[in-house]
Amino acid sequence: MADMFRGRVLWFGIAPSPEMRRELRNRRLAVTMLADAPAADQLVAACGAVFSFDTSNIDSVSALARELAPALVDHGLRIEILATGDGVLGRAQKALGEVTRTRDVHARTAPEPHELPERLARHEPGPHPNTRLEIQLAGNREPISDQDIPLFQRAFYDCRKIVLSELGGGRSRARVFSVHATLENSVAGAWPQPFFVKLDSTDKIVKEAENYRSFAPFVPFGLRPSVHGCVLGATRGLLVGDFADKSEPLWDQVRRNVASLAISSLFETTLGGWREQAYAVDPVKGSVAAALEQANFCVPSRIKKSYLDYARTQDIRVTPDQLWTRLGALDQTYRKAPMHGDLHGENVRVRNGNAILIDFASVASGPLTADLAALETWFAFELPPEEARDDYENAKWRAVVDRLYAPASFLHPPDPSDPTSSYCWMVSAVRQIRRLGIAVQSCSSEYEAAVAVSLLRRCMWDDGCTADRFRRAHGYVVASRLIADLRNENGTPS
Length: 494
Fold this sequence. Notes:
The protein is an alpha/beta fold and 494 residues long. It contains 18 helices and 18 strands. It has helices at residues 18-26, 40-44, 58-74, 86-96, 115-122, 149-155, 202-215, 250-255, 260-270, 272-276, 288-294, 308-313, 320-328, 370-381, 395-404, 424-440, 446-458, 466-489, and strands spanning 8-13, 30-34, 46-53, 78-83, 105-109, 134-137, 159-166, 175-183, 195-201, 227-232, 236-242, 248-249, 284-285, 333-334, 336-339, 348-351, 354-357, 364-367. The strands form 5 sheets. A 6-stranded mixed beta sheet has the order 6-7-8-9-11-10, sandwiched between helices. Strands 2-1-3-4-5 form a 5-stranded parallel beta sheet, with helices on both faces. Helix 4 (86-96) links the parallel strand 4 (78-83) and strand 5 (105-109). Helix 17 (446-458) packs antiparallel against helix 18. It starts with 7 loop residues before the first strand and ends in a 5-residue tail after the last helix.
């Protein structure tokens, strides 16, 4: 079934003319006239659907299109909206509403007989969706929605079963899985190496696929996924690639205090090809914060003002807008290179000491210090899963980060931790990354500013648990102190 040609055209409304039928037949396309939802076998065999309007059927056919269009696109079909005249098309588009803005929906007025058949013949719907695919989720996880099931049936059309293990991640609403598949008719065997699948909005999946094409060649093979492609629906899409099997998150190694080799591997080898590009051009003169805003790394208007309540208890009364204005006024120089843009302990996997990237969604051009600052602050301010989620203030943790993020620690890395401290692992990771950040900065304020921006970026979200909100609130306080120090260093009174 998987290799069968999808040559059916589902037709709703006014029937095609004899000339158009002939053009469709010439391209091995068969019309199926319908007045209601297609049967499952008709849907999976189709490459396109046509909703054909005249003055008599605008209400009925537009109602049908509104009901069916999202599912048709989710199954890979191209949708054509036809009208007998411009006036009819205008009325139909108004009745169709959001349907006309759905991807793979195209509107035409009275096309030539060959035009529509040619467009449908050139459309690539992909293989038949495998409606018999068995989808299992490992652990007690949220089920895959009915809307998203056709995407998996298209992506894994040649499989009998897939088992999804959901991976942790950042703040986006994307869902990321490792996938163990059982192939149906493979000459090589039943169990291929595992895949990764990212489920997100269509626009974000398209963007990440483009980022892989542009930036992956600069990352050594084997230290980033090999992407097989993407499957796009009306509003959601899948990105599918090879998963780093027998690996673990960098976050797990950091908390066991055994991540030194992996962190070095990450910046020297995995990201080395990107970071070397910074030296192919002259340094840039300008604000680090402005560069990171341009890269969409931190959006100052999204910083939650709710964190000011806690800040006032620490004698910090400066607003996010004031902080950002002060960062933007700094006289700075930095080197610019591709940056990951969302580097954290869950989107880096480690296997045999090698750091492997699994997420290219936010890759952009930015300051060389940005990824270092993002990862360092994530390790220091992210709530470990083993810590209490309902306790707001954590004085012990606060004392450690206040020492790690004292302004003097950006002149030289902070002192080592007491090896018996419960946060020894955090100090070790921060010190290692801080040394790298200070070493590569192009001016004395660059890395400190990048860290301040990374802390403010964390304040763009306030929907976590009580303990998580406290850490983000204290991050706002720490960022304010660093910016005050930078302002004094720049010669401007606080």
